[in-house]
Amino acid sequence: MEMPPKSPDGSEKSPQELVTSNTGSTLYMSSRSESVWTSASRSKWDIYHKPVIVVSVGAAVFLFGTVITSLSCFLTHNKSVYKMTGPAFLSLGLMLLVCGLVWIPIIRKKQKQRQKSQFLQSLKSFFFNR
Predict the structure, then answer these.
(1) Using alpha carbons only, how large is the chain's radius of gyration in Å?
(2) pLDDT one-digit tens code per residue, 88-100
(3) pLDDT confidence tier of residue 53, bands split at 50, 70 and 90
(4) How far does Cα 108 stand from its chain's mean position?
(5) How far apart are CA 80 and CA 103, in angstroms?
(6) Which of 32, 67, 75, 104 is the most core-located residue (most Cβ within 10 A)?
(7) pLDDT at 56 over 80
């Protein structure tokens, strides 16, 4: 027969006490995104900082790949290393650059949808709370 778990103070808890603990409400509270439930306006940097960082890193890696690839044309020693790593950095930088550039319109679209949703919620609460 299985023994019920003991709490840190040594007392035994029944299975019903374990099920009715407040973990459900804790999970519910932590699952809500604060930006959805609060209407505090955020700055442009708070909204766009991640895609801007991805675009900047992508551009830097792309330029580094361009330099490495061009070194394979001018330098004779370690030419095979430059020919292998240069295109790898070029492709990685281009991938990051494009991902960041695509991310920005997605954020803009989400911001517009959020503004429409907040407007509709306020309109709905205005009419139904009378």
Answers:
(1) 27
(2) 999 999 999 999 9
(3) very high
(4) 15
(5) 35
(6) 104
(7) yes
Task: Give the integer Cα–Cα distance in Å for 48 and 29.
Answer: 26
Looking up tokens 């099920």 gives 19
Average pLDDT, the chain: 79
Structure tokens belonging to residue 1? 């027969």
Q: What is the pLDDT of residue 58?
A: 97
Q: Where are the domains of the chain?
A: 46-124
Specify whether the CB–CB gap between 90 and 69 falls below 8 A. yes
Running DSSP on this structure, what letter comes out for residue 56? Answer: H
Spatial contact of 35 and 57, defined as CB atoms under 8 Å apart: no
Closest by CA to 51, choosing from 114, 112, 94, 96, is: 96
User: Reduced to 3 DSSP states, what percent helix, strand and coil does the chain have, rounded to the nearest 5?
Assistant: 75, 0, 20
